Amino acid sequence: MRVLLGVSGGIACYKVAGLVSQLVKANHEVRVVMTPAATQFVGPVTFEAMSQHPVMLDIFDTGLGGHHLSPVEHIDWAKWAQIAVAAPLTACTLGKMANGIADNALTTVWLALPPAVPQILCPAMNTQMWENAAVQRNVAWLAAQPQVTLVGPIFKRLADGDVGIGGLAEVPEIVTAIAGTGVTGE
């Protein structure tokens, strides 16, 4: 299966390296697209080494890791995906997805996804952010889309020390959701 993994900038980024590892071990092909903020938590080299593919950071970068991107690479990546997973999905990126805002590589690729591509969205943020009315409005709209499955967030001790809902779902739960889409490799 071809898995497009969108990584946005939250502390839970470190867990996503384990997700890539599990998917590759299960013989899935993984491509990673990151927001600029995500690179502050985990470097793209980590995901490149684990996935054996270049990481997309900027749709206008013509020399990413020695790989030259075409002006329509974001379209090519969207068409390539058999399933798209956003983990961790921050409030910012979630809001952009819900409102069709494409101002970075991740949201641009996401907006170009064909409607039939299943999307697994894995929100992770502080409890107060998760419970914010605007975030809940955006979540409700996204969850109503037939291709979207929400996984998490979970109740746990968060990075800021608070205990509440907002943690990234555990990797096995995300892997199970991916398997549950019924998508198989070519």
Number of domains: 1
Q: Based on the structure given, which CATH architecture is correct?
A: 3-Layer(aba) Sandwich
Question: Could you tell me how far the N terminus lies from the C terminus, measured between alpha carbons in angstroms?
Answer: 7 Å
By CATH, the superfamily comes out as: Flavin prenyltransferase-like
Widest sheet, order of strands: 2-1-3-4-5
Could you spell the SSE succession in H and E letters?
A: EHEHHEHHEHHEEEH
Q: How many strand units?
A: 7
Largest sheet: 5 strands, parallel
Helix fraction bin? 25-40%
If you compute it from the alpha carbons, what radius of gyration comes out, rounded to the nearest whole angstrom?
A: 15 Å
Approximate shape: globular
In terms of DSSP E residues, the strand content is 15-25%
Which residues sit in consecutive blocks of at least 5 with pLDDT less than 50?
Answer: none
Individual helix count: 8
| Structural class estimated from helices and strands | alpha/beta
